[in-house]
């Protein structure tokens, strides 16, 4: 006897609700030693926040300092809204194509109608790898600056870079987000919050003398364009969404994680950029300049 439409709909709903799909990258891993589908949406949100916010916060005040208070704030908010929109596009694409695990897979699907699936896969894969390399390089640079500040420059800068590179490699060894990276993401989020809070407090405690806040600031096209790229890059990191969603217990909950990510990042970016700019002129130009101008206590906190 053929199953009724009602039972079919019930089966489909249950499968969707539980995030079960035979096309998924990771399906039934009950009997496997490594469990991939372990992330809840709050855990996924924390990982997304860690990936995006940690690298973009300190560069944002430059946008306000260069283009002015009002345009800089509008740009940051607009980029946050646009990032939320593009997040939903990627999530919908992933839900419609559960077999997609990275940008290379997405490139294969997008270019296949033109007979260029292999080309699309390689191009987007190369872009993902290059983005990941530059992202890790940025984190290694920040780690080097942190160690150099904490030790008051007792060793060669390359030594600090080598030490932090080894630490970064060890952190990347776990094969799943839930297998260690989830806890590290929470610690990273807390450290970023503490660092930015200290930076905001420091900009108020030691403000730039005769600081004048302007609504708009005239600049050359090159300078303004370079400053505007900071908010754009501050929201970059969507390339990892496919992989994170693949490890979620319920992939459809990824939109909740996206809402949490973009709401938190946009509000935090605006607050940090505005408060820092009100206190110090050009607070966010580069991290090394902050460390050089801060009091001896602030770098150790950040």
UniProtKB/TrEMBL annotation:
It comes from the Eukaryota. GO terms for molecular function: L-amino acid transmembrane transporter activity. Keywords: Membrane, Transmembrane, Transmembrane helix. It is found in: Membrane. The keyword Membrane applies. Belongs to the amino acid/polyamine transporter 2 family. This is Transmembrane amino acid transporter. It holds the Pfam family Aa_trans. It is a multi-pass membrane protein. PANTHER family: AMINO ACID TRANSPORTER, AMINO ACID TRANSPORTER (EUROFUNG). The chain crosses the membrane at residues 64-91, 123-146, 152-171, 183-201, 221-245, 257-275. Residues 38-275 form the Amino acid transporter transmembrane domain. One of its GO terms (cellular component) is membrane. InterPro entries: AA_transpt_TM.
């Amino acid at each position: 006897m053929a199953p009724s439409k009602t039972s079919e709909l019930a089966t489909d709903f249950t499968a969707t609700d539980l995030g079960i799909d035979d096309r998924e990258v990771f399906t039934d891993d009950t009997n496997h030693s490594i469990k991939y589908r372990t992330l809840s949406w709050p855990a996924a949100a924390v990982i997304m926040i860690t990936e995006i916010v940690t690298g973009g916060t300190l560069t944002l005040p430059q946008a306000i300092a260069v283009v002015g208070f009002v345009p800089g704030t509008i740009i940051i908010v607009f980029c946050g809204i646009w990032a939320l929109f593009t997040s939903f596009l990627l999530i919908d694409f992933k839900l419609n194509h559960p077999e997609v695990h990275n940008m290379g897979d997405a490139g294969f699907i997008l270019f296949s109608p033109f007979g260029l699936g292999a080309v699309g896969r390689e191009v987007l894969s190369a872009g993902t790898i290059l983005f990941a390399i530059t992202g890790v390089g940025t984190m290694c640079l920040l780690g080097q600056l942190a160690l150099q500040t904490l030790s008051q420059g007792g060793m060669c800068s390359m030594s600090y870079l080598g030490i932090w590179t080894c630490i970064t490699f060890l952190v990347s060894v776990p094969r799943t987000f839930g297998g260690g990276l989830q806890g590290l993401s929470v610690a990273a989020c807390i450290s970023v919050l503490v660092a930015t809070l200290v930076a905001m407090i420091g900009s108020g405690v030691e403000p730039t003398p005769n600081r004048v806040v302007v609504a708009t600031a005239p600049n050359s096209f090159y300078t303004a364009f370079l400053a505007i790229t900071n908010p754009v890059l501050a929201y970059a990191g969507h390339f990892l969404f496919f992989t994170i969603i693949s490890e979620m217990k319920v992939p459809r909950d990824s939109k909740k994680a996206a809402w949490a990510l973009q709401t938190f990042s946009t509000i935090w970016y605006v607050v940090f950029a505005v408060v820092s700019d009100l206190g110090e002129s050009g607070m966010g130009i580069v991290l090394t300049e902050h460390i050089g101008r801060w009091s001896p206590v602030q770098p150790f906190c950040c």
